Amino acid sequence: MHKKYQDLIAIILMVMACIPVASAQVTPDLSEQKPDNEEYSLDQIVVESSPLNETLFNSAQPVSVLSGKELTLKARDSLGDTLALEPGISSSSFAPGAGRPIIRGLSGDRVRILENGIGTLDLSNVSPDHAVTVESALVDKIEVIRGPAALLYGTSAVGGLVNVFDNRIPERMQNAPLSGTAEIRGETTDQERAGVFGLNAPVGSFMFHIDGFKRHTDDIHIPGFARTAELRRDAPLDYSEPKGTLPWSNTESDNLTLGSSYIFKDGFFGAAVSDYNTNYGVPNGEEDISVDAQRRRIDVRGGINNTGAFVESAKLRIGIVDYQHTEFEGLEPGTFFKQNGLEGRIDLNHRKIGEVTGTAGVQLQDNNFEATGAEAFQPPTTSRTYSLFDLEELAVSDVVTLQLGGRVDWNSVDSAGFPETGLASGSSDFTTFSQSTGVVWDMNDDYSLALSVANTERVPTGQELFADGPHVATGAFERGDSDLSPERSLGTDITLRKNTGQFRGFVGGFYNHFSNYINLTPNGQEEDGLPVYLFEQVEANFMGFESQLQ
Q1: Cα separation of 81 and 215, whole Å?
Q2: DSSP characters for 151-184?
Q3: Cα–Cα distance between 408 and 139 in angstroms, integer?
Q4: With contact defined as beta carbons under 8 Å apart, do 112 and 162 qualify?
Q5: What is the CATH number of the domain that holds 386?
Q6: CA angle (369 as vertex; 216, 325 as ends), nearest 5
Q7: What is the pLDDT of residue 421?
Q8: For residue 357, what are the CA distances in angstroms to 312, 349, 350, 527?
Q9: Residue 393: φ, ψ to 5°
Q10: Cβ–Cβ under 8 Å, residues 233 and 269
Q11: 22 secondary structure, DSSP code
Q12: Span 97-118, mean pLDDT?
């Protein structure tokens, strides 16, 4: 994209700054729409990541939702930094342009990041210096499910998921002839200059959408030296000690998306094409390290409601991504990463049978990964997953709801090996099963109590199975183990929520036991000047509590 779209974005921003437009069709901030004399309550917020029309008040799992003005004020230049103040969430913060959410201490491939229910299909789960290709300022709503969410969205959601929603494929017709948003952002710490725009327009039975953004930041201003006195004394640099600014912390990114959909009485069908580019520095102590990444994405979505048949509604979602990035040392290109990914799913909601409602579906994931260069620590790998899942909800009484679900995944991970180093090709096949149970007790209009238990299995990634090389970003020589078995965990959550009144919010606790957690452990040796780390399986426990009061 780069230059050919920059002028277009600038022109549209200037035009929108000069004409009044209607407010955009985004997920409403219900707390702002309620009259002053009527209280806001948690049961007004529908959790779109759940196909059972749950609300925050009656969700079996702990959920956080950001939308409206709250999302606008919290949006930062990475998804991790945008969510870092939410309960149980932090950011990897490896680089200003590459913050990825960490949920309850779990990160990487244990946290799924979705766009409208389909994975981002980038490489942010491979290394903490790889960016998440999501622009927070362009999304309408972000939902975070803390704890195992593998049942509906895959084995890599064992720690939780982040699902961002946007209007790139409109699902309903608007009455206004034109609606949109425009925003200019700035920040003094890094001299951020950013612009965002979005436009929606109906033409007959079609809705059209365009959005884009451009952001540029300089190195972050800091007080004093970037490194501690001990490091300056014991490990002097071969260049001037950075002071006053954090070198190589600058970022530059842009995106343009075009989308359209055909709207009919009980459904829609549409597609969107997105072009995302980012270039950001990596302040890891080495001189002039940066990452230049590009992502081209095609999304197809469709849905139908009120069919009158046993399958009352259905939704189709497909995402196709061509992602690549190059890691630079100064002007010299180093390692080149590439991934072509496809993910598709169909969700089928059946009509109510007695007091039982539910959804079932199928899911497909196909990723082809390749890294070339001196620091390619993972061989070319192809990963495929075919899945079936089902989630049913039973209204036991007027105040007690029970949820039961299961999922089966057939997985294959194939490696081409490193012929030049003698690392042979390999192949691993897995069949995994996940189950979950949830109970919600609506004690009264003000309080609810939710309990969920999930038994999940996560398939080892190509990196965990076949890595064998220097991973300079993390300062380790990583070595995989092709004999790893699926990672098994048993997670329990309990949450007490208060719905209305002067004070509202939740308090809860969680415990997650891994019988064979895949851990990256040093073995005390060195190779290529880096400490050797091995992927091995150990027992691990994660526990804690969370609360939020408003």
Answers
A1: 15
A2: HHH-GGGSSEEEEEE-SSS--S--SSS-EEEEEE
A3: 31
A4: yes
A5: 2.40.170.20
A6: 20
A7: 66
A8: 10, 8, 7, 56
A9: -125, 130
A10: no
A11: B
A12: 93
Rounded distance, CA 310 to CA 413, Å? 37
Residue 422 pLDDT greater than 80, yes or no: no
CA distances from 360 to 313, 347, 408, 442 (A): 11, 6, 12, 26
Whether 8 shows a pLDDT value over 80: the answer reads: no
Identity of the amino acid at 89: I
Reduce the DSSP state of residue 225 to 3 states and report it: strand
Q: Residue 383's beta-bridge partner residues?
A: 367, 413
Q: Provide the domain limits for residue 409.
A: 3-549
- With b meaning 16 or more CB within 10 Å and e meaning fewer, what string describes 127-144? bbbbbbbbbbbbbbbbbb
Q: For residues 144 and 65, give the distance between their C-alpha atoms in angstroms, rounded to a whole number.
A: 6
The tens digit of pLDDT for each residue in 260-289 reads 999 999 999 999 999 999 999 988 777 788
Left, alpha or beta for 391 (phi > 0: left; psi -120 to 50: alpha)? beta
Phi then psi dihedrals of residue 24, to 5 deg: -70, 155
Yes or no: say if 249 and 292 are a contact pair by the CB < 8 Å rule.
no
Residue closest to 284 by CA, chosen among 520, 153, 475: 475
* Lookup: tokens for 389: 């899942």
Q: Answer yes or no: is pLDDT of 1 > 80.
A: no
Given this model, what pLDDT does residue 23 score? Answer: 34
Nearest-angstrom CA–CA distance, 188 and 118: 35
What are the tokens at 461? 């990634």
22-73 tens-digit pLDDT: 333 333 344 344 444 445 577 778 888 888 878 888 888 999 999 988 998 8
Does the pLDDT value for residue 407 go beyond 50?
A: yes
Strands 220-225 and 101-103: unpaired
- pLDDT on residue 500: 83
Q: What is the DSSP annotation of 114-131?
A: EETTEE--SSTTT-TTSP
The predicted structure's pLDDT at residue 7: 47
| Pick from 389, 390, 379, 361: nearest CA to 420 | 379
Note whether 385 and 353 are within 8 A (CB).
Answer: no
Cα–Cα distance, 515 to 449 (Å, whole number) = 28
- Tens digits of per-residue pLDDT, 369-406? 999 987 888 999 999 999 999 999 999 999 999 999 99
DSSP 59-74: -SS-EEEEEHHHHHHH
527 forms beta bridges with: 530
In contact, 388 and 362? CB cutoff 8 Å: yes
Q: What is the mean pLDDT of the chain?
A: 88
Q: Considering its fold, how many domains does the chain have in total? A: 1
Confirm whether pTM is higher than 0.85.
yes
- pLDDT of residue 185 exceeding 50, the answer is yes
Calpha distance 76→86 (Å, rounded): 14
Determine the Cα–Cα distance for residues 259 and 204; give it in Å rounded to an integer.
15
pLDDT the model gives residue 40: 58
Residue range 216-235, pLDDT digits in tens: 999 999 999 999 999 999 98
The rounded distance, in Å, linking the Cα atoms of 100 and 83 is 9
Please tell me whether residue 105 adopts helix, strand or coil conformation.
coil
Nearest one of 490, 481, 471 to 518, comparing CA atoms:
481
Residue type, 441: W
